[in-house]
TrEMBL record:
<feature type="active site">
    <location>
        <position position="342"/>
    </location>
</feature>
<keyword id="KW-0378">Hydrolase</keyword>
<comment type="similarity">
    <text>Belongs to the peptidase M17 family.</text>
</comment>
<dbReference type="Pfam" id="PF02789">
    <property type="entry name" value="Peptidase_M17_N"/>
</dbReference>
<dbReference type="InterPro" id="IPR011356">
    <property type="entry name" value="Leucine_aapep/pepB"/>
</dbReference>
<keyword id="KW-0479">Metal-binding</keyword>
<feature type="binding site">
    <location>
        <position position="261"/>
    </location>
    <ligand>
        <name>Mn(2+) 2</name>
    </ligand>
</feature>
<keyword id="KW-0031">Aminopeptidase</keyword>
<feature type="binding site">
    <location>
        <position position="340"/>
    </location>
    <ligand>
        <name>Mn(2+) 1</name>
    </ligand>
</feature>
<feature type="binding site">
    <location>
        <position position="256"/>
    </location>
    <ligand>
        <name>Mn(2+) 2</name>
    </ligand>
</feature>
<dbReference type="InterPro" id="IPR023042">
    <property type="entry name" value="Peptidase_M17_leu_NH2_pept"/>
</dbReference>
<dbReference type="GO" id="GO:0030145">
    <property type="term" value="F:manganese ion binding"/>
</dbReference>
<feature type="domain" description="Cytosol aminopeptidase">
    <location>
        <begin position="336"/>
        <end position="343"/>
    </location>
</feature>
<comment type="function">
    <text>Presumably involved in the processing and regular turnover of intracellular proteins. Catalyzes the removal of unsubstituted N-terminal amino acids from various peptides.</text>
</comment>
<feature type="active site">
    <location>
        <position position="268"/>
    </location>
</feature>
<dbReference type="InterPro" id="IPR008283">
    <property type="entry name" value="Peptidase_M17_N"/>
</dbReference>
<feature type="binding site">
    <location>
        <position position="338"/>
    </location>
    <ligand>
        <name>Mn(2+) 1</name>
    </ligand>
</feature>
Length: 490
């Protein structure tokens, strides 16, 4: 039942599909999974090779339209056909295929075996099926009966095999990120999270170092310590590295790992606070991405820095007005303890930049303002101009909506504090996403090309499933980062 590539100390994952690559349609193919689209005169079969005579008429007769996400079962010559809608015939791109196969993966109940061909590309089909078929079992006394998985042969010629294997790795890494984000905060807290990351490292061929609170105090990681000091569960800093021989380009990855964000003394309202189990989504995406990079043997020298802390109010918590000293010496006036992500990221970015990487990507569920600016599905990308634009473009290519946002000149003045070098919130909520970006920019090395991806909305779907996006953890922006790394390696 488990699609988890690794056996981790996490609640069980389920899946509705199990894929295998085949170079020809097997003799016992099971159900035929057939793409259909919506043309001006109704349902169409865009892949003519599969258009068994009369199929179209049958589909029409049962009311199929070919619209995106529609799944229709018919029987033809004693064989089950499952038609899945790609949407508008004029508008079929990779993302349409990914979404359609995502919805398909959730509609295969009772089907043991099936076959799909790959005229629309191996990658979107594999990603759509695996991402759409994901389920998270949670922690239940009596686990719901698993939906039996559908074994699917993905048929392509021999040259498609590599694309299949790569797509499986990328999808599995995204699912790993989802598992981490979906795990409740009493199970996944800084120390247990560091342990799980170490397990992932062992399975993917990564080096790992876990630094505890004593080390952090000794080396002056004042941001991570300040955020973690209100919690009974002390903070950690995890360093993962992938250093293949001969790699010359260096990349640093940094991800926000707040295992739960209550806001601290600047306490959040109770309603919806539970969504803050996802506040380690940035770090989980980095774990997924670097694990994929290692399994894909990407020829880059990659170092990931993950600051893990739980933001709690208590007698030992940071107070509004406290001044902290970040790793490297910059001081900050903490005016709002709920603007904690930037505090832990600042330390991690400063540490990452000590090694003067060519590129730095950081990602975080950083600001509610991201959703005000761009909605809940589109990531805000900030940073150095060229690389920022490149990462945003890459996000759109892989189906993770992203938009480049400028840092704002008017925030420069607001960043100043009468008692410290900088302060952690601006004067108003306007441009709150960019204020956080500007804060982080103070810790990025001068010659490093930098992209900061705010995924406050995109990392977590509090609504219903759609396309290949389930409820709760989405796995964003793993695919953006993996694709960016692959491109940098070329
Ligand atoms: N983790 C939150 C941001 C967030 C909000 C992520 C909603 C996902 C959904 C972050 O730590 C936070 O609390 N930010 C504050 C910053 C403010 C105090 C300047 C915010 O956005 O309200
Ligand atoms: Mn917060
Ligand atoms: Zn937060």
């Amino acid at each position: 039942m488990s699609a988890t590539p690794f056996n981790l100390s996490l609640p069980a994952r389920g899946t509705t599909v199990q894929l295998q690559f085949a170079t020809s349609v097997p003799s016992d193919p099971g159900a035929a999974l057939i793409p259909v689209s919506a043309g001006v005169d109704g349902v169409e079969l865009p892949v003519t090779a599969l258009g068994a005579t009369g199929l179209l008429e049958t589909l029409e007769a049962v009311g199929a339209t070919g619209k995106q996400g529609e799944v229709t079962r018919v029987v033809r010559d004693g064989r089950l056909v499952v038609a899945f809608g790609l949407g508008d015939s004029d508008d079929i791109d990779e993302e349409a295929v990914r979404r359609a196969t995502g919805a398909l993966a959730r509609s295969l109940t009772g089907i043991e075996r099936a076959t799909i061909t790959t005229e629309f590309g191996v990658r979107p089909i594999v990603e759509g099926l695996l991402l759409g078929g994901y389920t998270f079992a949670g922690v239940k006394a009596r686990p719901e009966k698993d939906q039996p998985t559908t074994r699917i042969d993905v048929v392509g010629d021999d040259s498609a095999r590599e694309a299949f294997d790569r797509a499986v790795i990328v999808a599995e890494s995204t699912l790993l990120t989802r598992d981490l984000v979906n795990t409740p905060s009493n199970v996944l807290y800084p120390d247990s999270y560091a342990t799980v990351i170490s397990e992932v490292a062992a399975h993917s061929g990564l080096e790992v170092e876990v630094f505890d609170e004593a080390y952090l105090a000794d080396k002056g990681f004042g941001g991570i310590l300040s955020v973690g000091q209100g919690s009974a569960r002390p903070p950690r800093l995890v360093h993962l590295s992938w250093h293949p021989a001969h790699a010359t380009t260096t990349v640093a990855l940094v991800g926000k790992g707040i295992t739960f964000d209550t806001g601290g003394i600047s306490l959040k309202p109770a309603d919806k606070m539970w969504d803050m189990i996802s506040d380690m989504g940035g770090s989980a995406a980095i774990v997924g991405a670097i694990s994929a990079a290692a399994r894909l043997e990407v020829p880059l020298r990659i170092d990931a820095w993950l600051p893990l802390a739980e933001n709690m109010p208590s007698g030992s918590a940071t107070r509004p007005g406290d001044v902290i000293t970040h790793y490297g010496g910059i001081t900050s006036e903490v005016l709002n303890t709920d603007a904690e992500g930037r505090l832990v990221l600042a330390d991690a970015i400063a540490r990452a930049c000590e090694d003067t990487p060519d590129y730095l990507i950081d990602t975080a569920t950083l600001t509610g303002a991201q959703m005000v600016a761009l909605g809940s599905r589109t990531a805000g990308v900030m940073g150095t101009e060229e690389f920022r634009d490149r990462v945003a473009e890459t996000g759109r290519e892989v189906g993770e909506a992203s938009w480049a946002m400028q840092l704002l000149e008017e925030h420069e003045e607001q960043l100043k504090s009468p008692v410290a070098d900088i302060r952690n919130i601006g004067d108003s909520r306007n441009g709150g996403m960019q204020y956080a970006g500007l804060y982080l920019s103070r810790f990025v090395a001068e010659n490093t090309q930098w992209a900061h991806i705010d995924v406050a909305g995109p990392a977590w779907n509090s609504g219903s499933p759609w396309g290949y996006t389930p409820r709760r953890a989405t796995g964003a922006p793993v695919r953006t980062i993996v694709e960016t790394l692959s491109a940098l390696a070329e």
